[in-house]
Write a structure and sequence with these properties.
Layout: E1 3-12, E2 15-25, E3 30-34, H1 41-48, E4 56-61, E5 64-65, E6 73-76, H2 87-97, H3 102-115, H4 131-143, E7 149-153, H5 161-178, E8 181-186, H6 189-195, E9 198-203, E10 206-212, H7 213-218, H8 223-228, E11 232-236, E12 239-243, E13 249-250, E14 255-266, E15 271-277, E16 280-286, E17 298-303, E18 308-310, E19 317-318
Helix pairs in contact: 2-3, 2-4, 3-4
């Protein structure tokens, strides 16, 4: 199912929250809504679910208004909320509300619970689940609906580090198996890149970039978006440059900087050399076999031009030649 925004504006009282002239969520794909806190991500999700009505414009699921197509949507809220009773009863209720017959409810419930790793918890009181268990159960309840449009609000919230890593591995296959079109909210760049095929970047209720993840990540439209995506912003003699995460490395290359070393940070599994270049504090990962400089030394670091974006033009462009060297 395709979903789209057509000249949508939304406000809470007199406070504008969302202003989206046009936005499409491609059928059968996973899209991540990515942006800082307060950027309007969860509001867009609620508009897609038909839980909010736009002040202006239309939110369409297929050819129907979202408010008239709620039966096509499965929504996992950020906080898992369950009624009293067992987990089995809570999962079954969601299916009963969709009007499914008992044999199909039992089959779907068992399948989703097993796939999400909560089958052994079905007869436990739902209010006695741990944070990670509750999030897995919340996901099972949502995926069991097999809705044309699945909405996930911060699906990895509530997990400890190990549980989050496991879900990052498991969730893509779960979505392929149980979901049609998926839109998920996250503020975590790595999470979005691992889970989604398409990205929508929001800031202050406006879409800053949208499209396939490689295109969006590779061509941030402005310095603020680049910084949110983890780019290192460096003012150079040729203008402002953004270096993609992991792009800087020790030694000479196409785009070169002189780093004035301030400290060496030993992270056990890696070493970062932290210093300043053109007045900006930056960190560069050094490989184990590369000689480490001492504080107050100067060292050359570089990045390949395909990992550097220039913001000196009205629209960002890839640098085809290195800027003036320090």
């Amino acid at each position: 199912m395709e979903a789209r925004f057509d000249r949508v504006q939304f406000a809470y009282g007199d406070q504008p929250v969302v202003d989206v002239p046009e936005l499409r969520f491609a059928a059968g794909r996973v899209t991540a809504l990515l942006g800082p806190n307060g950027s309007g991500k969860s509001t867009l999700l609620r508009l897609l679910a038909g839980l909010e009505r736009p002040r202006a414009g239309r939110v369409l699921l297929g050819e129907e208004p979202a408010t008239a197509a709620r039966a096509s949507v499965a929504y996992a809220f950020q906080e898992a909320v369950f009624l009293s009773g067992t987990l089995r009863a809570n999962l079954d209720l969601a299916l009963r509300l969709r009007g499914l017959p008992p044999p199909e409810r039992r089959a779907r419930l068992a399948e989703a619970a097993t796939a999400c790793g909560v089958a052994h918890l079905l007869d436990r009181p739902a209010n006695r689940l741990s944070g990670g268990e509750a999030q897995r159960a919340n996901l099972a309840r949502t995926l069991s609906l097999r809705a044309p449009l699945t909405l996930l609000d911060e699906p990895l919230a509530g997990f400890d580090e190990r549980g989050r890593a496991q879900m990052l591995e498991e969730l893509p296959a779960l979505l392929r198996r149980f979901a049609g079109t998926t839109v998920l909210v996250t503020h975590d760049r790595d999470e979005a890149l691992r889970l989604a095929e398409d990205l929508v970047l929001l800031r202050e209720g406006r879409v800053r970039a949208a499209g396939p993840r490689r295109e969006v990540f590779g061509s941030p439209p402005d310095p603020e978006t680049a910084a949110f995506l983890g780019y290192t912003l460096i003012p150079t003699d040729a203008g402002l440059a953004g270096v993609a995460p992991g792009g800087l490395r020790p030694g000479p290359g196409e785009f070169m900087l002189t780093l004035h070393v301030e400290e060496i940070v030993d992270l056990v599994t890696s070493v970062e050399v932290v210093g300043r270049a053109h007045g900006e504090r930056i960190a560069v990962a050094f490989p184990p076999d590369f000689p480490l400089p001492a504080p107050r030394e100067q060292v050359t670091v570089s990045a390949p031009t395909e990992m550097v974006v220039s913001f000196t033009e009205p629209a960002p462009k890839r640098l085809t030649a290195p800027p003036a060297r320090p």
